[in-house]
Amino acid sequence: MLRAPPQTLQRPRPRSRPLSPAPRCSNDPAPAAAGSIRRLVLPPEGRAKLDPRPDRDFYAFPRLVTHVDDGFIATLTDLYRERLKPGWDVLDLMSSWVSHLPPEVQFRRVVGHGLNAQELSRNPRLDYFFVKDLNREQELELESGCFDAVLCTVSVQYLQSPEKVFAEIFRVLKPGGVCIVSFSTRMFYEKAIGAWREGTANSRVQLVTQYFQCVEGFTQPEVIRKLPSPGGLPGSPLDAVMRLFAGMASSDPFYAVISYRNFKPM
Ligand SMILES: C[S@@+](CC[C@H](N)C(=O)[O-])C[C@H]1O[C@@H](n2cnc3c(N)ncnc32)[C@H](O)[C@@H]1O
Q1: Model-level pTM greater than 0.90?
Q2: 41 pLDDT higher than 90
């Protein structure tokens, strides 16, 4: 059952399926230590943002744009096609008006979360959504062990308490459920945390890996990188130079860090 009082979950448009009763959730068989935070990854300065205004103010108006290019989105959708199964319950954390889920795959339920209700209400894949500032409060008003997959796309750099958010991700995942965190090099610079802003591509991959590792019970994270060839498209070095002269921008590099909720603590 979703734990949220009905008013905190919003439906983007009329649906034939009612909010209640929600699907039954498995009882959590894991011992107390599973899901606990082993250590903090970030020092205080690593959590700081250049723009200290509340995030909800920054996201007060809808941004109906895509935050990465078509190549990145195609790679992500292919990854979802490979890892997510039809009939699953999916949570799209830090979502917006677009979905990167494969259009042909039918999921049982897709719940969206973000900071702007207008954006979320435009997202055609969401069955329900809720708005919550994860830098103010990290607890998700969702029952434990309810989701087969939790997704977080090009947004992890804005989390100031990632350890608590990843512990919540662990809690809402079913045993064996997967979390896929993807990102590129673009960001709202003034809203990204210091550890991200000042990092390199490799250190950001390390950071997300450590977010998983700091929570007891996630599997060893798997890293996927897809870096663009010079000039953005495969071809000879001469092609690349020609493309640079022609002003064709290189595409957004793709990074994903993937981990599963262990069935049993190791
Ligand atoms: C770059 S957008 C990415 C949106 C979407 N995942 C996508 O792929 O298009 C960053 C998103 O992070 C979310 N976000 C940023 N700060 C947040 C916060 N403090 N709490 C919750 N969500 C936040 C916002 O909902 C925003 O839409």
Answers
A1: no
A2: yes
